[in-house]
Here is the input.
Amino acid sequence: MDNLIKDIDIISGEEAQACDFKTTVDENTGKSRKLYIESYGCQMNFSDSEIVASIMKENGFDTTSDFNQADVIFLNTCSIREKAEQTVRKRLTDFNKAKKSKPEMTIGVLGCMAERLKEKLLEEEKIVDVVVGPDAYRDLPNLIASAEEGNKGVNTFLSREETYADIAPVRLNSNGITAFISIMRGCDNMCSFCVVPFTRGRERSRDPHSIVAEAQDLFAKGYKEVTLLGQNVDSYKWSPEENNKARLSKKEGEVSTVVNFANLLEMVAQVSPYLRVRFSTSHPKDITDEVLYTMKKYDNICKYIHLPVQSGNSRVLELMNRTYDREWYLNRVQAIRDILGEECGISSDMIAGFCTETEEEHQDTLTLMDLVKYDFSYMFFYSERPGTLAAKKYEDDIPLEVKKRRLSEIISKQSQLSLERNKLDIGKEQLILIEGTSKKSDQEYRGRNSANKVVIIPAGDYQPGDYVLVKVTDCTTATLFGEIITVNPTLQ
Here is the structure.
C-alpha cells in the first residue's frame, strides 16, 4: 500500500506533512557569479523561482546545482504546512556550514515563509542576509548588493499590481516538453485554514497578450504542453485599465474590455492544435459553464479539472470559509459530467480532521467521494497554520490519532475509486503526449492522456514530445498501460 500511495500522489499523514523541492541546474554561459535556488511547496513557488533566475541572470549570474559553489543561495519557501518551514530551517543550518568556508556568500529566504515571518528570519536565523516576499523579486539585485556591503535587507511589500508579465522565465528542471505559465498572482478567497492571502496578497491578473506570447514562444522552442497557473484561475479577470480583480469588479462599466478565464483559455488554445493546454487550480465557487464549453470546443484543451473540495460536509465547509456547500459542489461536478462527459478527469484536495469535525461529517466526505468518483486526490490531515482565521477562531480539537485514522479511510476510498476509474479506460483509444522514459524501465515510455493519467507504452520508433494514439490494455490504481496505434497522428 505504501508504494501504491506514493505512486499515485495519495499520501499518508507523515508524507502529507512533507514538501516537494527542486533545485537549480548547472549552467555555464560565461557569467562571473553562481546562483543556487532551492524551491519548496507548490508549483507557483517553482514558477516564481524561474522568474527569480531570470532577474538574476540579467544581473550576472549563472545557476549551479551545488550550493557549495554558489555566491548567492536562495531558499524559495512554503508556509502551507508546518513541515515545510521545519525543512527550510534545517536547510539553513546546512548552508551555514558552507558559508563558514565562504564568508562572502549571500543567503536569502524568498517566498511565502519570508512574507509570513519577515524580520523574524533575520533575528532567529542569523545566517540569513536577505528576506524577500513574492512581490518584491525585482528588488533582489539591489538587496544582494546591499548585503554584500554588510547591510541585511527585507522587502516583503505586497503589491496590488505586480505580475512579472514582462519577465521571460528561465526554465528550471525542464523536460523541454511541458511548461507552466503564471497567469495571475495572489488570492482573495480567505479560506480559514490557508495563509496564501496573507503571503501572496490580493488577486491580480496578468496581461493576456503577454501570456499568449509566452505560450507562442514555448511552442516555437518545441514545448508541446503548457499549464496556466494561478491560485484560483477561474477568477482571472483583466482589462487594459485595471488588473486587480477587486478594483476591476467595481468599475467594469468604466473599462474598455474585460478578458475572463474562458476568453484567455481560448486565446491560448488557438496558438496551435499541437500545443496542449491545462490549468490549475479551479475553485468550485468560480468555475463557470462558459469555461466548460470552451474546454469542449477545443480538443487541445485537456479534459481534466483539479477541483478541490476540502470537505464533503456543508457545516465544515462554512467553517473553512469555502463559500459553497455540498450541494453547490455536486452541482458543479454534474455540470462537468453533462458538458465534458464521464471521461473528464476530476481530482481534489481533502483535509481530514478540521476543527470540530464529527464522525458523521467525516462520513460525508467519504460519501461525496463516492458520488464524484475522483480519478485521484491530494489528501492531508489538518495542520493549524499561525495567522490564519482558523488559528484565531477555532480550537484544533481533533486528536492526531483520529486525524490519521480519518485520513487513512479517505486514502483507502480514493484507492478504490482510482482503480475503478482506470478500469473504465481499458479498451479505449487515447491520445497521449510522451514526456520521457518510464521510471521503472528504459524499455518503456511514459506519457499522459487528456485526463492527466500516466500511460505506459513500449519503447519504439518515437521520442519524448511525440503524440501517440494508443489503445489502453491494462491498468493499476496508479497507471494505465497501452499499445501503439499511430505515432504523431494529424490533430485538428
Q: What stands out?
A: Residues 400-423 form the longest helix (24 residues). The first strand starts at residue 21 and ends at 23. Residues 204 and 247 are 9 Å apart (CA to CA).
